[in-house]
Each structure stands twice: as C-alpha cells, then as structure tokens.
Specification:
With 68 residues, this protein is an all-beta fold. Strands 4-3-2-1-5 form a five-stranded antiparallel β-sheet, with no helix packed on it. Strand 3 and strand 4 form a beta hairpin. The chain is globular.
C-alpha cells in the first residue's frame, strides 16, 4: 500500500480526541517531513511539522487531508 502524500506537501491535520473520537479543534496546516515505515497494524504514518508552531508529530494517514 503506497503512501498518498509526498514529502514537503502541505496537508490538513484533524486532531483526534480520546479513544480516536474527532476533536472539536479546527484542522491545522502541516508539512510532510517524513513518510514512516508501515507498522504491524498496517496503517500508514507520517511525521508532520506545523506551519505556525514549532511542533512535529507522527500521525496516521486517515487523520490527514489535502490542503487547499
């Protein structure tokens, strides 16, 4: 299963609340800085960096969408 997003691509990240529920926070714009190896659960992961803050995080592909 190939990754959908490319390095240095801008994406929206929808934060998740407890136990995977959607959080009420607005999506933020991040840049893909690394595509992570596929782990045992089969989900694709990315390391993303915030455009507005000095924050990096690792997220699953289902938490991302294309930025417009």
């Amino acid at each position: 299963m190939p990754h959908s997003y490319k390095l240095n691509e801008d994406v929206r990240h929808q934060p998740q609340g407890p136990q995977g529920r959607a959080a009420n926070d607005a999506p933020m714009i991040y840049t893909i800085v690394q595509r992570m190896p596929i782990e045992a659960d089969g989900r694709l992961r990315y390391r993303i960096k915030s455009k507005s803050e000095n924050i990096e995080r690792v997220v699953t592909e289902d938490q991302l969408s294309y930025s417009q």
